[in-house]
Amino acid sequence: MIIWSGRGILTPLILVTSVVLFISISSEEIGVYTFPISILLAGVANWILGKKWNSASGRIVVDEATGERIELKSNHTLFWIKMEYWGVLFGIIGLGQLLRLIF
Question: What's the CA gap between 35 and 57, in Å, rounded?
């Protein structure tokens, strides 16, 4: 069961799309580096999109009973983790794998 809110479902789709596209266009010279680089690029994409979408301002409503102002804002999460944090995780994994291959 996949649990997401807002556009959080795009997180795994960005990852899979990045891996498939990068593997399909890569050459044999960089073949071993293809997977880590694609994960790293998916991390960058998730970070940028997550920051953009999660920082957007919400709609302010006023509770008639108390007069309290409340901001209604959608969060874009996958398994309760914001998209930008998935980007950090993918970036760490991709960079770690890339460094493992280099050294």
Answer: 35
Q: How far apart are CA 84 and CA 77, in angstroms?
A: 9
Residue pair 39/94 in contact (Cβ under 8 Å)? The answer is yes
Smallest Cα–Cα separation from 88: which of 36, 39, 43? 43
Sign of CA dihedral 36, 22, 78, 72: positive
Distance (Å, whole) CA 77 – CA 68: 27
Q: Can you tell me the distance from the alpha carbon of 55 to that of 69, in angstroms, rounded to the nearest whole number?
A: 19
* Helix (H) / strand (E) containing 79: none
- DSSP for residue 32: G
Asked if residue 98 lies in contact with residue 90, where contact means CB atoms within 8 angstroms, the answer is no
Question: At 56, is the secondary structure helix, strand, or coil?
Answer: coil
For the segment 33-52, the average pLDDT, to the nearest whole number, is 95
pTM: 0.83
